[in-house]
Design a protein that fits this description.
Structural class: alpha+beta
Protein name: Epoxyqueuosine reductase
Largest sheet: 4 strands, antiparallel
GO molecular function: epoxyqueuosine reductase activity
Number of strands: 8
Function: Catalyzes the conversion of epoxyqueuosine (oQ) to queuosine (Q), which is a hypermodified base found in the wobble positions of tRNA(Asp), tRNA(Asn), tRNA(His) and tRNA(Tyr).
Radius of gyration: 20 Å
Number of helices: 11
Order of helices and strands: HEHHEEHEHEEEHHEHHHH
Main location: cytoplasm
Strand order of the largest sheet: 1-2-7-4
Strand content: 5-15%
Number of domains: 2
Family: Belongs to the QueG family.
Distance between the termini: 65 Å
Amino acid sequence: MPTHTVSKNTQIVKAIASELGFSFCGIAKAEFLAEEAPRLEEWLTRGYQGKMGYLENHFDMRLDPTKLVPGARSVVSLVYNYYPKAKHEKENNFKIAKYAYGQDYHFVIKEKLKTFFSTIQKRIGEVEGRVFVDSAPVHERAWAAKSGLGWVGKNSLLLNKQMGSFFFLAELIIDLELEADGPMKDYCGTCTACQDACPTNAIPEPYVVDGSRCISYLTIELKESIPAEFKEKMENWVFGCDICQDVCPWNRFSKPNHEDAFDPQGWESFTRGEWEEMTEETFGRVFRKSAVKRTKFAGLKRNIQFAGKK
């Protein structure tokens, strides 16, 4: 494809991203992530995935986008802000991660991605590919870093100089050749705020998270009883955890989102007693469209009981 056409198509793709409310759009060539392969293998070997057995599946697909989308030429990575308009973390009350304040991001962003893809086809022509939002074996942070949207921080999350880390990542893997963006340098420096603040010691070394000790894992992914060693270390988190993000200096640049679907859906006024006495009917009504549904009622009750015991 002529260089000027590739350049023009790249501009079109980035313009569509901006129109749909994505904060940043970065592009990488669809190729095997050679540098990530040994890191991922080592992480799995250490057992840091805990009971998340699905992370051991499709190893090749996680690292090679052409195995997910045959003929793929480009990986388009996108950033969508979810930093809340107001925080709802009260002293001595239960807390849920900010990403779960409103409606389930999978559905909100998936609709935008479908629009994105169909708009590309309208403006550029026949393009084949797939869209992803935390829903398939796509190594999201690696692709976002490779395309210059930020760098992977010591807490293993993608950090962006303009907006910190309170955002969702999404991708289009397409067979359209586009201009690739280069990676960004690491700006964590000597800071160890995230490691120092983690109450369960889930960041044993910089850039490595022991998923099996992470409060997000314990409250969402772990289906069995939470190990007793974490008693009195939950700091009132009952769905996810934001500690390593809240203490990150780069998140002083976070700005409120413009997505009404991410506003709280009725739980934000709960007292501690109301959390503890929540019925299944209330859970179903308040969290009907929420990511919190993932724990199911029994899972959330388990978390509340575990975090609430002294």
